[in-house]
Amino acid sequence: PAVIRRADYAPYPWRVPAIRLDFDLGLETTRVEATLTVEPNLDADAAEDIRLDGDGLVLESVHVDGEERTDWRRDGEALIVPLSSGKHTLTIVTRILPSENTQLMGLYASNGMLCTQCEAEGFRRITFFPDRPDVLSVYTVRMEADREAFPVLLSNGNPVEEGLLDGGRHFAEWHDPWPKPSYLFALVAGDLVARTDSFTTMGGREVALGVWVREEDLPRTSHAMESIKRSMNWDEETFGREYDLDRFNIVAVGDFNMGAMENKGLNIFNTKYVLADQETATDADFDAVEGVIGHEYFHNWSGNRITCRDWFQLSLKEGFTVLRDQLFSEDMHGAAVKRIGDVRVLRSVQFPEDSGPFAHPIRPDSYKEISNFYTATVYNKGAEVIRMMRSMAGIEAFRKGSDLYFDRHDGEAATCEDFVKAMEDGAGLDLTQFRRWYEQAGTPQVTAEQRHDGDTVTLVLKQVVPPTPGQPDKAPVPIPLRIALFDREKGEHAGEQLIVLTEAEQEFTFEGFAKPPILSINRGYTAPIALDRDISREDLVFLAAHDDDSFARHEAMQELLLGYLLGDADDEARAAIGTAAQAVLADDALDNEMRAELLTLPPFAYLGERSKIYDPGAMVEKREGLRAWLGHEFAGQFRDYHERLTNLAREEGAQGKQARRMRSLALGYIAAADEAEGARLGLAQYRAAAGMTERQGALAVLAGLDGTEREEALADFYARFADNPLVVDKWFTLQAMALRPNVLDEVGKLAGHEAFTISNPNRVRSLYGAMSGNPVAFHQESGAGYRMIADLILELNMRNPQLAARFVPSLGRWRRVEPGRSAMMRAELERIAAAGTLSRDVAEQVEASLG
Ligand code: HT7
Ligand code: ZN
After folding, report:
1. φ/ψ (deg, to 5) at 208
2. Is the CB of 374 under 6 A from ligand 1?
3. Residue 416 and residue 461 in one domain
4. Is 593 considered catalytic here?
5. Same domain, 11 and 109
6. 570-601: per-residue pLDDT in tens?
7. 119 lines ligand 1 (CB under 6 A)
8. Distance between CA 153 and CA 652 in Å, rounded?
9. How many domains in the chain?
10. Residues of the chain under the 50 pLDDT cut
11. How far, in Å, is the centroid of ligand 1 from the Cα of 346?
């Protein structure tokens, strides 16, 4: 596939100030009449033709200024129409086949409804158009359809008109006054019902809200509606952003490639991020619904009012919006646990990406298929980069920077550079060197050492940004680090400070320490780096027990765990973990959620990332062995927590949620030390569960054991929830995640289960996504796990290329795995590469992985 480069950007020669779309909707075939007003773009080089993107369209006719034209030509999928300079009206009629659209891009059918997904390049699958984010148009959309099959017709903006037509048909017209790029276009047609409500904005505008779902799902929509209102309120209070239409609708769709989509005034969501009630959704699911609703809503300003000039600028909207949704969730539920969770995701998903064959800067320089760049780097590292600006500026100055950005670029298709400049001007920062964070891939590796002399302590910091594909040499980046120095005698520090490491090596001195202090560094995780600090085990135990920064406390615990799991697994290292765990278990000042966080073992993905050469079999033994040891050492206390929290875990509110988290964590430790006891208590928890958090927590533990308790609970779970697709997804996932020796055979059997289907992305992820993250399954010694994933990629390759490509990076880590497995992983990649026609998505990922 051809390479598209950031450096080649040129503005589009035409402006398209307005577009009218007339849809004659049907599941099998849909007719689209697009009427474009076009005029030369005076900021670009003039062109004699207009070139419009297309993908898989059947072209029926082209008219220019009312005259039929036949002098058009095709260049691959694109349509080129000769056009004299000046203003014209271009009318193009196309036909599309929604039911055959298995890629779920463009207009497609899902459970009898019709919906769209246009980001990044799906609009060209609906009509011929300059399908690029810097062409902004005002949209008017008229939909006609059978009234019984599609009683509800929605599009962007505000409704204008609706009415009945002959032959059982009806129509609706919508108008969106805000100019937008084609990727934000949406329509939905289906038999849907809405939960409705309203929100009055800070400027007094009354906004009608709707959450549209299938009728049977209506009882599970109240949390989504509350989340919308909380998001609208938070964005006003925190960023001064007000909603700008009379309507805000979200629609839940069962077949969806990603989490959700921020189409102007009509967000389309994966059902997973809308539907929630206590019986079917866990506490984590509730939080995810709120977080994703917040994310999509916040895009209304960071993405829609100000969009991207080109797709290389994706992090402009995604990094910023992820930061905004993270801050929102921190404000809703407490910052500490949220920050720990966000950093866990960064380290287990983004760090491996940044050290692997697909490493790219948050603003990439080139791509072959843009869908491959909706990555943890662009999203999560992008958010970390903006968070660093916020840490350096302070909250108030950061707000001045964001206000200036929104004011200065409202209505534009902007660049990352525009954002950085607005931050410089508004927040008063000098970001000259900081811009390297946008240019360089790779996770900076920082080492910290201390020298002590008299009363002076010198902190010696060094940084290396590692080479990544295409970027062999790197320059130092500014790294803001919030630190505190604990006085050894008093067990306290005299206050935090923010230091910024800008050089490859730099010293910072601090006075007044008769003895070397205990260094707490990168508190709150102010910089997305990998840190290696020179610190004794005793000092880590101290910080794990006493640090007043929750993140730093968690970090100290993780360092103890990593030291043991990545080192020689010696008894002293394990004993230090025991001492810290005891302090955590006995600390009454901790809430139970934070306690559970502190006792959570590092994820395998992060352990793999931190291993020079990863031996998954040995790591499973070591990590689960440590779990069993801790379960044994603290058997009484885990039993006690599990029992004592039984009633609290049935309650609503923060304390109930915290209790549920700790209770299921305790159950895991109990089962690791004593399977029979774990099975007994697990089944009791399962049977008595008042909601999905307790039920899933129990089933996750039982699924990893043998015996009748496991079978009973799994059978009951399926029978109870067989008609709820999101819960059936959980059933697949829990089994595919189990660390059981025969788990891969079970995954194979589950693929043949009546409820399994390759055509639903959630179901595919529930089984194979979970399996590919399970080291016992994916890294099975025979190589059968790798074969299974490669077969899946080949099966999905043409049917749904985006989904297929998401499975490639797990095989792409072959260089970091022990030699026997590594060769088999590589061989599977080569088998895919040799398989004939590959989609652009899969080809790009496979080429990078082998390259
Ligand atoms: N901005 C949205 C991206 C998205 C997407 C991209 C490619 C293919 C399908 C997709 N669905 C949604 C999601 C977001 O970040 O808010
Ligand atoms: Zn987004």
Report:
1. -85, 125
2. yes
3. no
4. no
5. yes
6. 999 999 999 999 999 999 999 999 999 999 99
7. yes
8. 37
9. 3
10. none
11. 19
Q: 151 lies in a domain?
A: yes
Model-level pTM?
A: 0.99
Residue 36's alpha-carbon distances to 15, 47, 56, 183, 515, in angstroms, are 10, 17, 20, 16, 74
Task: State residue 851's pLDDT score.
Answer: 92
Same domain as 60, residue 152: yes
DSSP per-residue codes, 566-618: HTT--HHHHHHHHHHHHHHHH-TTS-HHHHHHHTPPPPHHHHHHHSSSB-HHH
Distance CA 361, CA 439 (A): 6
Q: Which of 439, 454, 484 represents a domain boundary (last residue)?
A: 439
For residue 492, what are its two tokens?
């306290």
- What was the pLDDT predicted at 836? 87
> Does 339 lie in the same domain as 385?
yes
Distance between CA atoms of 438 and 626, rounded to whole angstroms?
A: 39
Neighbours of 59 (CB within 10 A): 15
In this structure, how many other beta carbons lie within 10 angstroms of the beta carbon of residue 765? 18
Residue pointed to by tokens 């929604």: 98
Q: Return the best residue to mutate from 261, 296, 314 for the ligand 1 pocket (most ligand atoms within 8 A of CB).
A: 261
Q: Is 810 in the pocket of ligand 1 (CB under 6 A)?
A: no
CA atoms within 13 A on the CB side of 32: 27
Please answer whether residues 321 and 308 qualify as being in contact, where contact means their C-beta atoms are separated by less than 8 angstroms. Answer: no
Among 205, 210, 180, 217, smallest CA distance to 195 is for: 210
**CATH of residue 456:** 2.60.40.1840
Cβ within 8 Å of residue 330, ≥6 positions away: 338, 339
> Which of 497, 513, 534 is the last residue in one of the domains?
534
Angle among Cα 118, 122, 128 to the nearest 5 degrees reads 115
pLDDT, position 512: 95
Ligand 2 centroid to Cα of residue 317, in Å, is: 7
Q: Minimal CA–CA distance to 664: which of 690, 683, 685?
A: 685
The CA-based diameter of the chain, rounded to the nearest angstrom, is 93
Among residues 463, 472, 433, the alpha carbon closest in space to that of 445 is found at 463
Q: Decide: 125 in ligand 1 pocket, CB within 6 A.
A: no
What is residue 1's predicted lDDT score, i.e. its pLDDT? 79
What pairing do the DSSP bridges indicate for beta strands 88-96 and 30-40?
antiparallel
Range of the domain at 355: 307-439
d(CA 671, CA 489) in angstroms, rounded, equals: 40
Contact 253, 268 (CB under 8 A): yes
Whole-number pLDDT of residue 488 = 93
Question: Is 433 in the same domain as 474?
Answer: no
Which ranges of 198-241 would DSSP assign to H, the alpha helix?
222-239
Distances from the Cα of 324 to the Cα of 290, 293, 309, 671, angstroms: 13, 12, 21, 39
* Nearest ligand to the C-alpha atom of residue 186: 1
User: Measured between alpha carbons, how far is 347 from 351 in angstroms, rounded to an integer?
Assistant: 5
Catalytic annotation, pick one of 119, 296, 555, 609 = 296
The encoded tokens of residue 463 equal 């940084």
Q: Using an 8 Å Cβ cutoff, are 39 and 87 in contact?
A: yes
Residue whose tokens read 């019986």:
279
Strand order in the sheet with 73-75: 49-52, 78-82, 73-75
Q: What is the pLDDT of residue 569?
A: 79
State in Å: Cα 260 to ligand 1 middle: 6
Whether 182 and 317 share a structural domain:
no
Atom of ligand 1 minimally distant from the CA of 370: 7
Same domain, yes or no: 53 and 136: yes
- Here the tokens at position 435 are 């811009």
CB-ligand 1 contact for 295 (6 Å cutoff): yes
Instruction: Tell me the CATH number at 384.
Output: 1.10.390.10
- What are 606-643's pLDDT values in tens digits? 999 999 999 999 999 999 999 999 999 999 999 999 99
d(CA 786, CA 817): 13
Token pair recorded at residue 577? 């973990």
Strand 479-487 and strand 88-96: the pairing is unpaired
CA distance 57 to 69: 18
